[in-house]
């Protein structure tokens, strides 16, 4: 659990770092989703967001900094429970600010922090642990550990059950269609794309892996062996995804999520090979801290006295709070399982609307429909056709190069990061047509802020649509004008 805590904190920091490069674009009123548009088209009255307190990117930067401080504290295990809560609070707030750039990995990261609040993942390998005696035993069982394991299983079970198209379970063509999407295709995917039989095998193997492998976590015999198998296979599975498909932090979040399943033997190996090296730094640190030792000893003695005098009084309260916590976690786990079932089973099992506010408020709502029920077939790339005042056409998506309708060698390279790729995917849907003028005008403003760029009199957002076909057929792309704007 300590490794899980550190990995989750590291991913949160990485996520904040990537998002911080688009503070104005995604989180301010000067970007693609002003607060007025968010409230009009996307807002749920049951959610909350501290990031909607202002439309200024400077305010967003302060909130990002606070989130980074909390994530560092979580990484080090300092005030772990408080750091976990603040990290979860600010992550939920950030995700609610712009739902147009979210993907399945964001749901999982949010849930790892949520369940982590109820786990003792700061009990060892943390700054908090230095102030407490070592635990009598390192094994731990509670409603929260059950919820954590079930949550991991739900990710893969629901992903498989939602893949109801024959291309996943019968035809084995899903991976072929996924790798036909140039907007997510990476070099590793290009290597295996020409081999249809290999793609069919990998498709069927993926479907069965997601559906069946989580069951090994409930086998009551040889538990360490089965858990190591699960972690090993999941790491190979997500490493393969990261080499073939452009999925942002999705693979890292999933790889971090299973670290809490590692058995004691794995931790023994890590302690044997890693901890001794870290301990070599101990004498240097001790020398520098030597002048502070008397003061620290006095403070430690005072703390121990306070702990011993208050222990007898608080023990009964602790038991009562522990029972209350176990009941709360069990109830939330049942609710989350029900929520996931709602997306799979027939309508008569559907969760009634009045009960959904709990999921939206706590953001335990989740949906694991990755490439489900079938793979998206509408592929293509964007052309940002800018018309200069002297009549020339330049493509803003290629840094002002002369306009061409030729397909780029790498469509993925047109996206700054996976957040922009997800935004461009949502930009296509007719239901999201309200997004289009804001994106167009944002691009115009950014372009004209650089005095080296020639002034534009018109900007057209064009999508070169290329629908994926079976048997490696490639239809000619059809340009679709999505939006036009002028200064």
TrEMBL record:
GO CC annotation: endomembrane system
Keyword Ribosomal protein on entry: no
UniProt domain HTTM-like: residue ranges: 1-266
Keyword Ribonucleoprotein: no
Keyword vocabulary terms for this entry: Membrane, Transmembrane, Transmembrane helix
Record localization: Endomembrane system
Membrane-topology descriptor: Multi-pass membrane protein
Record-annotated membrane-spanning stretches: 55-78, 138-162, 205-226, 232-262
Domain of life, source organism: Bacteria
Protein's name in the database: HTTM domain-containing protein
Species this protein is from: Hymenobacter taeanensis
């Amino acid at each position: 659990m300590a490794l899980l805590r550190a990995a989750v904190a590291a991913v949160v920091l990485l996520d904040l770092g990537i998002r911080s490069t688009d503070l104005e674009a995604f989180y301010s009123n000067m970007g693609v989703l002003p607060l007025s548009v968010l409230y009009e088209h996307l807002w749920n009255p049951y959610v909350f967001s501290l990031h909607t307190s202002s439309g200024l990117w400077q305010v967003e930067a302060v909130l990002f900094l606070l989130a980074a401080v909390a994530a560092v504290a979580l990484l080090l295990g300092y005030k772990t429970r408080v750091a976990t809560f603040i990290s979860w609070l600010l992550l939920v707030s950030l995700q609610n600010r712009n739902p147009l750039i979210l993907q399945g990995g964001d749901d999982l990261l949010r849930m790892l922090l949520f369940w982590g609040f109820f786990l003792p993942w700061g009990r060892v390998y943390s700054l908090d642990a230095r102030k407490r005696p070592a635990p009598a035993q390192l094994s731990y069982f509670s409603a929260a550990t059950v919820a954590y394991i079930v949550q991991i299983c739900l990710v893969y079970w629901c992903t498989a059950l939602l893949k109801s198209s024959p291309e996943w379970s019968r035809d084995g063509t899903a991976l072929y269609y996924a790798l036909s999407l140039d907007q997510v295709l990476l070099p590793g995917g290009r290597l295996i794309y020409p081999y249809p039989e290999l793609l069919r095998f990998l498709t069927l193997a993926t479907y069965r892996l997601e559906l069946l492998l989580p069951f090994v976590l409930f086998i009551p015999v040889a538990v360490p062996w089965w858990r190591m198998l699960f972690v090993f296979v999941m790491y190979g599975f997500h490493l393969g995804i990261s080499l073939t498909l452009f999925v942002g932090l999705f693979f890292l979040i999933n790889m971090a999520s299973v670290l809490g399943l590692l058995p004691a033997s794995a931790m023994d190996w890590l302690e044997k090979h890693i901890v001794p090296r870290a301990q070599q730094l101990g004498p240097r640190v001790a020398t520098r801290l030597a002048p502070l030792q008397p003061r620290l000893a006095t403070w430690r003695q005072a703390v121990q006295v306070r702990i011993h005098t208050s222990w007898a009084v608080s023990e009964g309260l602790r038991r009562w709070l522990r029972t209350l916590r176990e009941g709360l976690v069990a109830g939330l786990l049942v609710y989350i399982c029900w929520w996931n079932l709602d997306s799979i089973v027939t309508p008569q099992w559907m969760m009634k609307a009045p009960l959904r506010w709990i999921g939206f408020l706590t953001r335990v709502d989740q949906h694991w429909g990755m490439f489900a029920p079938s793979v998206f077939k509408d592929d293509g790339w964007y052309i940002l056709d800018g018309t200069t005042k002297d009549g020339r056409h330049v493509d803003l998506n290629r840094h002002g190069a002369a306009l061409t309708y030729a397909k780029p060698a790498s469509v993925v390279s047109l996206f700054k990061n996976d957040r922009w790729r997800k935004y461009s995917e949502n930009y296509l849907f007719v239901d999201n047509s309200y997004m289009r003028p804001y994106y167009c005008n944002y691009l115009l403003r950014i372009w004209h802020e650089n005095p080296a760029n020639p002034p534009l009199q018109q900007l057209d957002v064009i999508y070169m649509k290329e629908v994926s076909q079976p048997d490696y057929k490639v239809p000619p792309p059809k340009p679709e004008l999505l939006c036009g704007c002028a200064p």
